[in-house]
């Protein structure tokens, strides 16, 4: 939930009536005090899962925002970590916070101390060659319409070395018995009404991004796809994981 240090209702309204890029520029100074930031519990689960299949040399955080996912990369990548985002405001906050010494999971300084860089760029046209062996993304796919995912996944594929991994967490969808289901449905409906009545649009629909869609689009982009359960979040009554990490490997 929002903390007292988070944005006011007026600030959220101003952001919601902006474009996606300008909206995040406005929200950046208080973003980490909102529920939109990826929870530490999820970051930790992904870090532990990546450590099992790593270590890696060069990592890229796609749509890095203020850098929550960069903390994961700094613990599993040995040589370099790069964050890319189109919001100058989010990148500025990320750079400032990255300047503070970052402790590793056991309280010590980073074991590998990789070089860290922040790049302003468009995920539809990434300014990189195929130099990464790990690409991650946290919470960004709701900002892309389903038809845009082909291009986004193709770009992730293009910056990976052969055999490189593209990994991201994907929680199981809430059921109609859950309050989260109705909250997400209400949010998506409100965003569609907003975009029908106001320009520029603010794309933020999290319900359409599902495992079946993601897997199909990844395979079409040239990846092989593996699913790893994140055991920290348990299982649903039907036995399926409450949260998975999708690991797509460039052939």
UniProtKB/TrEMBL annotation:
Pfam families: Methyltransf_25. Keywords: Methyltransferase, Transferase. GO terms for molecular function: methyltransferase activity. The keyword Methyltransferase applies. Residues 60-164 form the Methyltransferase domain. The keyword Methyltransferase applies. PANTHER family: METHYLTRANSFERASE (PTHR43591), RHODANESE DOMAIN-CONTAINING PROTEIN (PTHR43591:SF110). This is Methyltransferase.
């Amino acid at each position: 939930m929002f903390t007292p240090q988070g944005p006011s209702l007026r600030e959220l309204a101003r952001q919601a009536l902006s474009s996606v890029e300008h909206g995040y520029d406005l929200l950046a100074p208080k973003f980490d005090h909102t529920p939109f930031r990826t929870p530490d519990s999820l970051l930790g689960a992904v870090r532990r899962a990546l450590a099992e299949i790593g270590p890696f040399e060069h990592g890229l955080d796609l749509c890095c925002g203020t850098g929550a996912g960069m903390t994961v990369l700094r613990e599993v990548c040995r040589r370099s970590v790069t964050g890319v985002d189109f919001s100058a405001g989010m990148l500025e906050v990320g750079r400032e916070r990255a300047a503070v010494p970052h402790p590793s999971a056991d309280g010590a300084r980073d074991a590998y101390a990789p070089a860290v860089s922040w790049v302003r760029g468009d995920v539809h046209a990434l300014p990189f060659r195929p130099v990464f062996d790990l690409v991650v993304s946290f919470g960004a796919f709701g900002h892309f319409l389903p038809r845009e995912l082909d291009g986004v996944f193709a770009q992730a594929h293009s910056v990976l070395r052969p055999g490189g991994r593209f990994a991201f967490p994907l929680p199981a969808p809430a059921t109609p018995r859950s309050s989260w289901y109705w909250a997400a449905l209400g949010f998506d409906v409100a965003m569609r009404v907003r975009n029908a009545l106001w320009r520029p649009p603010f794309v933020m629909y999290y319900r359409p991004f599902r495992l079946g869609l993601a897997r199909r689009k990844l395979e079409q982009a040239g990846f092989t796809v593996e699913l790893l359960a994140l055991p920290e979040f348990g299982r649903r009554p039907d036995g399926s994981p409450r949260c998975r990490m999708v690991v797509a490997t460039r052939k």
